[in-house]
Amino acid sequence: MRRRCLVLLAAVLATVLAVVFTATPAAATGAQPRVVSDRPASWTPHVLDGTVYAIAVVGTEVVVGGDFTRVATADRSTTLSRHGLFAFRLGTGEISSSFTPTPDGTVRALAAGPDNTVYAGGDFSTVGGAGHRGIAQLAVPSGTPIAAFTSPGVDGGDVTAVAVHGSALYVGGSFTGVDGTARPALAKLSGTSGALDTNFNAGLAQQRSGRLRLEKLAITNDGATLAAAGTFTRAGGADRNQLALLSAASGAARNWYTTAYVPDCHAGYNTYLRGVDFAPDGSYLVVVTTGHQAGDKAMCNSAARFDTGGTGAHDAVWVNRTGGNSLFAVAVTGAAVYVGGHEQWLDNPHGDKSAGPGAVSRPGIGAIDPTTGKALAWNPTRSRGVGVQSMVTYPAGSGYPGGLLVGSDTDQLGHEYHGRIGAFPL
């Protein structure tokens, strides 16, 4: 009898577990169930100079890019030379001794690649002693350039944005083409060989002023849609002012647009869009901007949500204005929209470098409710400097929860010393 009961119990448990695991879908990349802590983790290392412009999570390693030259361990007992790129382990902060590719210029963008690799974009010509004009693929944690990725190189400009899905690599920047083939500001490459995908052509054109440049890229978790932000006013022959949703397969402009970013901000900005990120399920995106102008009508110095469903013209679902200070980075998790920059306040449409009615203090970093568009209570604070340049989520691992990584140009985060990079755990 006891044996039959045990067998029956095992069968019931197996059935329950099967139901649980088949009925619960895998979480989308970047999705988090709640807001992160306002206390930074103690294990992150420190960047001692320059600016952190980009962060990518590759397995249990964090790859950091920028224009720095020195880093230190979390306890600041050891200082190491690291030019433009370094890596450290999630949960411990241990700085990789092997990941020392040493690009000869600034790294502006990073994206995790397949098989424990990372793609780096920037204004460099060599990485790891090998020629790589603007884009390279590196093994993690060895830092060795991947030999098969021949990296044809971009023409006439630099790489400022990268996005990856599967074997597809998207690069954006101020370049005019790839290896002699015209691809203004945006191209799709093979993530394996680096060869140009000639079937993809976004046709970005007619910059607002200055030179044509793509500022930021984001891609949906299903790999179907790209969001491109930059100086363009046309994409694939259609009017798309500074923001376009594109087919990730062909580059064709989707029948989705907004006129929200047609008006000018400060005359010095040929684009004032500085960051874009999709919600984990792809149902909306959030754009953050600079612009020097304040007011309750302009889209300068704001975070704005746009739903991605449907066709034709789209107005912002909500706009959260800082009252005259720039936002440079955004990360959308479903539980929160994290924003970072040079801001002093959120919920401040009537401020002009001042706190208007209803403004809430959020120096340098904050979080917004994805539904209401109002500031959440999360308020760790940071020394503002120029501003946060990168915000990236990371998953839970052995002995540590998931969280949010933040890269900037300052060393005070959550009322503690954190040199230019920090982590807020869930």
From TrEMBL:
Signal peptide (residue range): 1-28
InterPro entries: Delta_60_rpt (IPR013431)
Gene3D superfamilies xref list: 2.80.10.50
Presence of keyword Signal: yes
Keywords assigned: Signal
Superkingdom to which the source organism belongs: Bacteria
Protein name listed in UniProt: PKD domain-containing protein
Organism of provenance: Actinocatenispora rupis
